[in-house]
Design a protein that fits this description.
This protein is mainly α. It has a single domain, classed as MFS general substrate transporter like domains (Growth Hormone, Chain: A, Up-down Bundle), CATH 1.20.1250.20. The protein contains 18 helices and two strands. The chain has helices at residues 4-10, 25-48, 50-54, 62-83, 87-94, 97-114, 125-148, 150-153, 159-186, 201-224, 239-256, 258-287, 293-321, 323-344, 358-387, 393-406, 410-422, 435-450; strands at 349-351, 354-356. It has a two-stranded antiparallel sheet. The longest helix has 30 residues, at 258-287. The protein starts with a helix and ends in a 17-residue tail after the last helix.
Length: 467
């Protein structure tokens, strides 16, 4: 691989380069519709509405419920790390990428709908966090196949824009979903049975709405994007044998394209921090800054607008300056904004010659956080898609999920640890804010590990042995 001539002779093409020469707008829209629909789970269920409900006083208090939720998500991350390694590999070898996208999406929808049975009492906390955690597991499995489809619908010239468009559609879908939730369930404009607050019926019905929303908008990709061609390979492997093949392939990737592995490790860390920003954002807004649920939703709407703009801008920059530069800039912005919220968010302060409350600080710099999350996520996906060997995109994105979830306990665990340590040391009600510190540590670690990693243009495409 050190010889230029040998490299040209043996260097395999990526799945992206072997894909379509031009993008079909219909397929791109159908693919992005899944992101639009997934916002019902990401924005409504895990960020701004249902987890805020789960961490309310009805379930035993913000600090305790937040710690239980963080622990459940940490366990979910460990489960994904154990089960996801062969998800993408088996969808590649079986030619069933779209099938497994549909199966896992359906599982998320069912688990989301079951959250209707989480009544506002402490004894239902474990059921609620368990359903959310398990849904996260299947959501990650679905994401493996969904992300792998990026190489099927984009070209080397527009992959950044297509990836950014998908993330932008997700954020915009979150806005629409949150507005509907606000108007029908949280602050209903007219009387109907779903507006009842008895036993939090209105919030529990949000779970049913979210499940239906996801299913409806996940359907287009199932019809518009063709199934992955089944490769001509030897008979299928057993589940456990697939791990042996995975180990051999990881060694081959490290030998022929080490910076692919380095990027997987770096992104595993900072993506865990990115996920935590949204997972715990609404919880912190309510528990630390006193936002009522309608205020949390309004913040979420503005945040999603800003995030959509950031994702689209980041996509254009990705195709021009490269994904690594976009990721570094985004992580730096996140660290600055998060640090300001941590330092200035506990009381009133003078800032820029004006009095600022903690809530104002969260509004302004929380929106800055939203601006930078989208580009980092979108460019990470586009970065890896550029390096995926032909016919192996699913497996590589499986490793992407595996490495990410192998450390996905970090941010929830540090979030929980910081709250636990701060509880006896700070004023009552202020401990939850220190969970931000745990998230910032994870983002900083990811940035530091990313800095020496080569850009996709400088890294080699991996040579992967057959199954």
């Amino acid at each position: 691989m050190n010889s230029a001539a040998a490299s040209e002779a043996t260097q395999p093409s990526s799945e992206l380069e072997a894909g379509p020469q031009a993008s079909s707008k219909g397929r791109v829209l159908a693919w992005a519709a899944w992101d639009w629909g997934s916002a019902a789970f990401n924005a409504v269920m895990t960020t701004f509405v249902f987890t805020v409900y789960l961490t309310s006083q009805a379930f035993g208090g913000e600090a305790r419920a937040s710690a239980v939720l963080g622990g459940a998500l940490a366990i979910a991350g460990a489960a994904i790390a154990l089960l996801a390694p062969v998800t993408g590999q088996r969808s590649d070898t079986g030619g069933r990428r779209k099938l497994w996208l549909g199966v896992n999406t359906a599982a998320v929808a069912v688990l989301t709908a079951l959250c209707f049975f989480v009544f506002p009492r402490p004894e239902f906390l474990l059921l609620g966090v368990s359903l959310i955690a398990l849904a996260n597991v299947f959501f990650e499995f679905a994401g493996v196949n969904y992300n792998a489809m990026l190489a099927q619908i984009s070209t080397p010239r527009n992959i950044g824009k297509v990836s950014g468009f998908g993330w932008g559609m997700g954020y915009l879908g979150g806005i629409v979903a949150l507005l509907i939730v606000l108007q029908l369930f949280v602050q209903p404009r007219f009387e109907w049975f779903g507006a009842s607050t008895q036993d939090s019926l209105n919030i529990r019905l949000v779970a049913v709405f979210s499940a239906l929303w996801f299913v409806i908008f996940a359907l287009p990709v199932m019809f518009a994007v063709p199934e992955l061609p089944k490769p001509k390979r030897a008979g299928s492997l057993g589940f456990l044998a697939s791990y042996g093949l995975l180990a051999r392939r990881i060694k081959a990737i490290y030998r022929t394209s080490p910076h692919t592995i380095f990027f997987l490790l770096a992104s595993a860390i900072f993506r865990d921090g990115l996920a935590a920003v949204f997972t715990f954002g609404g919880i912190i807004a309510a528990g630390t800054f006193g936002f009522e649920l309608p205020q949390v939703i309004f913040f979420a709407i503005f945040g999603n607008v800003v995030a959509a703009v950031g994702a689209v801008i980041g996509g254009f920059l990705d195709d021009r300056v490269g994904p690594k530069a976009v990721i570094i800039g985004s992580l730096t912005g996140l660290l600055v904004a998060g640090t300001v919220i941590l330092v200035l968010g506990n009381d009133n302060h003078m800032l820029f010659g004006m009095p600022w409350s903690g809530a104002t600080t969260f509004w302004v710099f929380g929106l800055f956080l939203c601006l930078f999350v989208g580009p980092a996520q979108s460019s990470s996906r586009a970065y890896l898609a550029r390096l995926a060997p032909q016919g192996e995109s699913g497996e590589l994105f499986g490793l992407y999920a595996t490495t990410g979830r192998a450390v996905s306990f970090l941010a929830p665990a540090l979030f929980t640890l910081c709250i636990t340590v701060a509880t006896p040391l700070v004023a009552e009600g202020d401990a939850q804010r220190w969970g931000i510190l745990g998230i910032m540590v994870v983002l900083l670690a990811g940035l530091l590990v990313l800095l020496p990693v080569k850009t996709p243009n400088d890294a080699e495409i991996a040579v992967v042995p057959p199954s």
